[in-house]
Amino acid sequence: MAIRNVRKYGDELLRKKSRKVEKIDERILTLLDDMLETMYENNGVGLAGPQVGILKRLVVIDIGQGPIFLINPEIVETHGAYIDEEGCLSIPGEQGAVERPYKVKVKALNRKGEEVILEGEELLARAFCHEIDHLNGILFVDKIIESEEV
Description:
Layout: H1 26-41, E1 46-48, E2 58-61, E3 68-79, E4 82-86, E5 96-100, E6 103-109, E7 115-121, H2 123-135
Antiparallel strand pairs: 1-2, 2-3, 3-6, 4-5, 6-7
């Protein structure tokens, strides 16, 4: 495994839409492992392909309950809403209040290429949404709620 460079705000690659992973091979699995190690090294809870310069629909998340690997994730259901502070490894030092769904259901492929349905509430739901936004070229700063609205 290897630590990869995290792309920073202003890098145009962060604004591009990621491509679907067509084949899960050793390169994809190694990339997922590298992303996880990079996320841990930077004290993050999630990391998406574009953040390490790879425009593939890949996400790793760990909110303290063990790693989650998502290939071609998509949100299939949301419930409720809540506002909380968010940050991003690609925008160090910046935080802001963002409204996200309270509960999210995500469909994706796991490392074996099997379809999985995962559900998350609060922080996990927020991480799912934040990282999937990265795959679509959307950053949390695009969604910050002005302080007078909070």
